[in-house]
């Protein structure tokens, strides 16, 4: 297994586009790291730089402690699975799986010894004679993964490998990828814009935006302690409620107010008077039928019934609020009272958009 060390790397394309900007990152040997962010944030470019398919504009990359700048892609002991599978249409499944080993002049006997268990592992043993155009999308994706596993290099790079699959296939392939990593324990970088893929697959997540790394952490750290407003917005479905306002103090009582709503803060709040942004995830509201102390009055406008939970759309003055509840007895048009779970809310600086309190 190989670790990957990125030191201050940048990539500027000939048209002036700054795709990656002075990124430093340590990927531990054997870990599953997900590069996640919106389209165009630089995550696929970062993967190509590691693979050696694009040249660095600045900085350095080390693989397994060795300087990778002078290494050709074929000498970096890695393999890349693309979004479009990149299978050879004129070759059978067997020959697609064998292609990388044949290029390295591995004997036919050893190639067969490697292909058979992988094809069985991925359910491809009955498809080895078929051509890619005779396969479903899910089968083609398994062939692309199989080609990587037959070579089984130290580093596995996967660039949006599930985006062309339907929802059910994506779910089953996520499960398969997690099992494969648990079995092979190879250093894996997985690129996606899908927050569910990121949260369910990554041991750590590297959240990117506009060519920069915004935050690196475990799925729990990213979701529970977003270090930036962008991270808080990117993760969570339904999305986080965000309110721009200020902290005010009146007779030893503190309030968050944005002009149209006022929410009393707990007595032990250590926030001073200032302009600020409050973030509350939908699951971090408690919905009451009667008004407890320190609550916010809101009118229920719409209910989304998800079976096990209800997504509740409220209006409070000029503010739209989304809450999530496992309770079932709600009525559209009725007034309810909301209280936040204060130990789980998020505060962001209005200027920098960075987290204010841990």
What report would you give on this structure?
This protein is of the alpha+beta class. The protein folds into two domains: 4-234, Rossmann fold, CATH 3.40.50; 241-348, OB fold (Dihydrolipoamide Acetyltransferase, E2P) (Beta Barrel). The mean pLDDT is 91. It is 24% helix and 34% strand. Strands 6-7-8-3-9-10 form a six-stranded mixed beta sheet, sandwiched between helices. The chain is elongated, with a radius of gyration of 25 Å. α3 crosses α4.
CATH domain topology of the largest domain: Rossmann fold
What portion of the residues fall into strands of 2 or more residues? 25-35%
Give the N-to-C terminal Cα separation: 35 Å
Major sheet details:
6 strands, mixed
| SS-based class | alpha+beta
Question: How much helix, percentage-wise, in residues?
Answer: 10-25%
| Full CATH superfamily name of the largest domain | P-loop containing nucleotide triphosphate hydrolases
Instruction: Give me the CATH architecture of the largest domain, please.
Output: 3-Layer(aba) Sandwich
- Please give the CATH class of the largest domain: Alpha Beta
Instruction: Report the mean per-residue pLDDT as an integer.
Output: 91
Describe the structure concisely for a colleague:
It is built from 8 helices and 20 strands.
Features:
single chain; 358 residues; alpha+beta; OB fold (Dihydrolipoamide Acetyltransferase, E2P); five-stranded antiparallel beta sheet; 8 helices
